[in-house]
């Protein structure tokens, strides 16, 4: 009798069923473990498809490069799945300057062109740098400073993937000089002189 009651209860109250996915409800605060789930009844296949990476990013900028993210903010379907992706476009001479993704490791696949990429270890500042060709893959461990430079005379494209729906992106030069920290403090913390700091703040949009 009891087992039958239990089965009936399971049939009518399947409340402990595992959720297959958790498409992000972006309104409301996210936190390190993700966003609230959209009601699965209104989720469609389009929540699992992102079309934005078919278009080249606009590289008319100071770095002659563009990052087009498909992180949880742009692609709510990745919420809770521990992954996301992005497209890199590097015009000739382009660079994704030294940067970190605080929350994720990265794997980069070169689709077209030639890219010199590298990262620096946190222990002993070891440098790992390589020029990559079409089809090559390189990994960048979580949190480490890394960069990508177009090493050819033609446009380069890469697809990168992350083991987080929200890897974060902090470009070191902008963090150091594109801010409002008074120049005196920037000079002290970077060992650069006043003229260098003022110049970099000017170029990178800093104040103070
Ligand atoms: C690319 O960005 C530049 C600089 O912001 C802008 O002037 C230009 O119109 C943009 N091009 C396209 C195709 O959006």
Automatic annotation (TrEMBL):
Cleaved signal peptide residues: 1-18
PROSITE patterns found in the cross-reference section: GERMIN
Disulfide bonds: 22-37
One example GO MF annotation: manganese ion binding
Residues of the Cupin type-1 domain: 51-198
Keyword Secreted carried by entry: yes
A Pfam family of this chain: Cupin_1
Residues given in the record as Mn(2+) binding sites: 99, 101, 106, 146
Keyword field contains Transmembrane: no
Main location (coarse class): secreted
The entry's keywords: Apoplast, Disulfide bond, Glycoprotein, Manganese, Metal-binding, Receptor, Secreted, Signal
Binding positions for oxalate per the UniProt entry: 101, 106
Family matches, as InterPro entries: Cupin_1 (IPR006045), Germin (IPR001929), Germin_Mn-BS (IPR019780), RmlC-like_jellyroll (IPR014710), RmlC_Cupin_sf (IPR011051)
Compartments where located: Secreted, Extracellular space, Apoplast
Gene3D superfamilies attached to this UniProt entry: Jelly Rolls (2.60.120.10)
GO annotation, cellular component aspect: apoplast; extracellular matrix
Family listed: Belongs to the germin family.
PANTHER family: GERMIN-LIKE PROTEIN SUBFAMILY 3 MEMBER 3
Protein name per its UniProtKB record: Germin-like protein
Organism annotation: Manihot esculenta
């Amino acid at each position: 009798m009891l087992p039958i009651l239990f089965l009936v209860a399971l049939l009518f109250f399947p409340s402990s069923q595992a959720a297959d996915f958790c498409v992000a409800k972006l309104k409301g605060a996210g936190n390190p473990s993700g966003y609230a789930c959209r009601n699965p009844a209104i989720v469609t296949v389009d929540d699992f498809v992102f079309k934005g990476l078919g278009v080249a990013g606009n590289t008319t900028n100071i770095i002659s490069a563009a990052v087009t993210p498909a992180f949880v903010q742009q692609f709510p379907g990745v919420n809770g799945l521990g992954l996301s992706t992005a497209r890199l476009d590097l015009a000739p001479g382009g660079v994704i300057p030294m940067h970190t993704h605080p929350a994720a490791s990265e794997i980069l696949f070169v689709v077209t062109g030639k890219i010199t990429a590298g990262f620096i270890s946190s222990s002993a500042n070891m440098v790992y740098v390589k020029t990559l060709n079409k089809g090559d893959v390189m990994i960048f461990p979580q949190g480490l400073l890394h960069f990508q430079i177009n090493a050819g005379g033609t446009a380069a494209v890469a697809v990168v993937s992350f083991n987080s729906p929200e890897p974060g992106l902090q470009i070191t030069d902008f963090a150091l000089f594109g801010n409002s920290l008074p120049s005196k403090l920037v000079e002290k913390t970077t060992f650069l002189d006043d003229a260098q700091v003022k110049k970099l703040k000017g170029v990178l949009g800093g104040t103070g």
